[in-house]
Amino acid sequence: MSSLNRLSRRRLLQFLGGGAAAGTAVLIAACGEDEEPAPTPTPAATAMAEATPEPTPEPTPEPTPEATAAPAPAATAAPARTAAPTRAATPEPTPEAMTEMMGATGPRDNVPRNRTVIAENISGRNANPEVFNPFSNSMTMHTGSQQLAIESVIYINLQTGQEELWQIDGFEYDEGFNGVTMSVREGVEWSDGMPFTAHDIVFTLNMLRDGTADLRWAVDVQEWVKSAHADDDMTVHIEFNKPNPRFMSQMFATLYWSVYIVPKHIWEDKDPATFTNYDPDQGWPVFTGPYTLTSTTELETVWDRNDNWWGAKAAPPIGGVDRQTPLALPKPERVIFVGVENAEKRAASAIANEQDTFWHMPRSVYEQVNQENPNIRAWFPDLPYAYFDPAPRHLAFNLKAPPFDNADVRWAISYAVDREKIVEFAYEGITTVTDVFFPHTPAMDVFYQHAADLFEKYPAKEFNLEKSAERMEAAGYSKNSDGLWADGDGNTVVMEIHVRGGEEDQQRVAPILADQLRVAGFDSTFKITEAGAFFDGIARGDILTNMQLVGGNTVNVADPWGTWRLLHSSHSAPIGEVATGQRSRFENAEFDAIVDAMAGLTTSDPEMKSLFYDSMEIILREMPIVSIVQTALLTPNNYTYWSNWPDIGNDYQAPSQWWGNFYHSILTIEPTQ
Q1: I want to staple 302 with a disulfide (CB 3.0 to 4.6 A). Which of 29, 294, 623, 661 is the partner?
Q2: 384: preceding bond cis by omega (within 30 degrees)
Q3: 38: helix, coil or strand?
Q4: What is the pLDDT of residues 441-467, one digit of tens each?
């Protein structure tokens, strides 16, 4: 019996749901309650009240456990559109007009260790350290850019299930969800001292709408945005191509990467496909966050606090654990993101207090580290230690490349995977097997339970070598003298499974997975691929098999459409051209029609369950992705120099330091000396 199976029921529920409230919702779903996923109190109906007291919005129901555990999209009926708050019009500022404004304070000298946070670049190495273009596929976002410098329009807090407005202070959908009006927060500034305005938002959206598919988010913006214009300096109106009740969540609610706004006054004469956004002499990159770049190499990125940060000057009451505290300068004066080669070096760094927040440690390594340095602590004080991560691990394919274009071959691969062994050896018992590639959040579990009979009909997590062989024979393969599956011309099923560099848990899965597949007759190996080459190879179709994850923003963790849309054929492309979304090049007209129908509905619409059921059957039948495990990541923090890190007893935020949400941990932690 694995260690996870010996956990208490309460701890297991906390583990799966990310907290006590979430655990309650998981229990309700697990007991078979057939109920609608409860929506979070949506900003669509309430957020504009922060900017405009009148008219008073309709009362919003108190959130249920499901709502507090995982976010949900806007309410079913759109509120009537009201006039956006009107500010006095001012001329759009020019750099010449801003010469007397204070820019960023710049690099610091001799920052002491007890005022420095040393965090980890989870990829180990940044192959493109001078690329700070958030629309470039070659940018490594998690070396501090989205955690320190780039602020988001909206953040999603997984612990509360709430979407928290940041660069804006209100928004309201048009009648019928045909558009949205946003109100820019007063006082927001770029790090060069220029004001952040509606013109920046409009410029960014129009740039993506008119850009090429090579730009991140361009395909999404082109699908949804018909026009964007500024009513005045502080008000944006966006007209949609078609109704979208989750536009704000889809585009702007950050876990990892979203549509980040860039400064018009810097970008307007640049080619977004080639602009690196890096020039130290000009103070680039310029974003609105409290840190600016000091230095960057492949192995180390240094950020220093900007004491002229807008948040400390304007001090809106959106900070603190309660999100009602006036913002102030974060306490760390410097944050350094470093690359760490492996778990052993990570452990040594932890024991020596050379680092403050860490990427994944194997359970056995963490237990030894915690014994030698009790200041190194995980999310839970005991098993399972790890935080539930909303990005299950799966095996993905280039579905336009033979033999992976054959569903029988994909099912044969699934039957060949012994997921229990992967849990036991790669994760040391701290996670669970899965037959879906979306997370088992309470909101998603409502849909999962509704389709329970499908998982009996299509046993997508079953290990069965006989069934694997039957599927391969049905696809026209037979085993050669080496025991490998071969087609009529003698070609074996070659599977070089690529794993992104730095993905510690997946790097432990890969050799086990490759061995299992080889035993089943597949010509399987694995390869660790640097992050930039990994993403580019998948996007262009050069990589045929890879370990991957699905996740990133609000709609992925609370709404089936959020995951399904990534498999819509609009994201497909011929091999050699850039594919977007999940990048598998899945094409199915019946599935597309269902996803399109979902797009105009909220999760609380009764039709969503029926649509989910039909689309889930297509996914199970076609097996475009082989799901492997739900994910638990044991990513400790060090309490030697800094306190008030998030953990199960202080769960104001998820602990994942590679997400954009780590920004809120940096704003909240306190020095111990």
Answers
A1: 294
A2: yes
A3: coil
A4: 888 999 999 999 999 999 999 999 999
pTM of the model: 0.79
- Kindly state the average pLDDT of the residues 51-73: 36
Q: How far apart are CA 450 and CA 591, in angstroms?
A: 18
Q: How far apart are CA 401 and CA 201, in angstroms?
A: 39
First to last CA, the chain: 44
Counting DSSP H helices and E strands in the chain, the numbers are 24, 22
CB-count burial class (<10 Å; 0-12, 13-18, 19+) for 31: exposed
CA dist list (Å): 60 to 250, 442, 466:
22, 21, 54
Largest CA distance in the chain: 80
Residue-level pLDDT at 510: 96
Secondary structure of 521-542 as H, E, C letters: CCEEEEEEECHHHHHHHHHHCC
Three-state SS at 161: coil
Q: What is the pLDDT of residue 81?
A: 37
Token pair for 487: 């087609």
Number of other residues whose CB lies within 10 A of the CB of residue 404: 21
Look up residue 586 and give its amino acid. Answer: F
Answer yes or no: are the C-beta atoms of 237 and 231 closer than 8 Å. Answer: yes
Give the H or E element holding residue 295: strand 291-296
pLDDT at 643 over 60: yes
Burial 1-18 (b: 16+ CB within 10 A, else e): eeebeebeeebbbbbbbb
Which spans in 210-338 are helix H? 218-224, 247-252, 264-267, 310-314
31 CB-near residues (< 8 Å, 6+ apart): none
Neighbours of 479 (CB within 10 A): 14
Half-sphere exposure of 242 (CA within 13 A, CB side): 10
Cβ atoms within 10 Å, residue 271: 8
Question: Helix, strand, coil % (nearest 5) of the chain?
Answer: 35, 20, 50
Total residue count of the chain as it appears in this document: 673
**Does residue 474 sit in helix, strand or coil?**
helix
Cα–Cα dist 283/264, whole Å: 15
User: Cα dist. 666→319, 329, 356, 563, 653 in Å?
Assistant: 11, 10, 11, 29, 11
The secondary structure of 326-380 as a DSSP string is PP---S-SEEEEEE--SHHHHHHHHHTT--SB-----HHHHHHHHHH-TTEE-SS
In this structure, what DSSP letter does residue 86 have?
P
Closest CA to 159 of 65, 275, 61: 65
| Mean pLDDT for the chain overall | 86
* Residue 597 identity: A
Q: Which of 515, 453, 149 is nearest to 302 (CA)?
A: 149
DSSP per residue, 639-661: TTTEE---BTTB-SS---TTSTT
Q: Judge contact between 499 and 506, C-beta under 8 A.
A: yes
Distance, in Å, from the CA atom of 524 to the CA atom of 45, rounded to the nearest integer, reads: 52
Q: Left (φ > 0), alpha (ψ -120 to 50) or beta: where does 76 sit?
A: alpha
Q: What is the per-residue pLDDT for 530?
A: 85
Sign of CA dihedral 307, 308, 313, 319: negative
Angle CA(561)–CA(566)–CA(567) in degrees, nearest 5? 100
Give dist(CA 88, CA 235) in Å, integer. 11
